[in-house]
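Homework help board

Subject: predicted structure for assignment chain

Our instructor gave us this sequence and asked us to write out the predicted structure in token form, then describe one feature. I got the tokens but I'm not sure how to describe them. Can anyone check?
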Amino acid sequence: MRKIEEYLKKPYKIELIPDMEEGGYAVSCPELPGCISCGDTIEEAMANIEDAKIAWLSAALEEGMAIPEPENLENYSGQFKIRMPKSLHKQLAEHSKKEGISMNQYCIYLLAMNDARRILSNNS
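My token output:
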């Protein structure tokens, strides 16, 4: 059986969300369900989530629960193929040329901007 120190060394994802209504920050470790905390500053929230991880992992080990592994980015190549209408391909090529960047960079920019908007709209 693994020890808590082994789990604490693992790169679990941490999400930090500003609390717009009351101030401060909410922080969670989504790969460890229910592992959440908060703090008045980013530094305090980050310290508190480390304490919350210790408490979560300790309880899980005591109860004999399965502890999930952190997400492994090695499972993703960073590449995918996409088919699109020729007219959209033309528009993207023209816009990227106008911006002075490759079409690949331009598409990554558009995807990232859209994803950021989606995340922001879900948090409001």
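Reply (TA_rk): Your tokens look well-formed. For the description, you could write something like this. Strands lie at 15-18, 25-28, 36-39. That's the kind of observation they're looking for.
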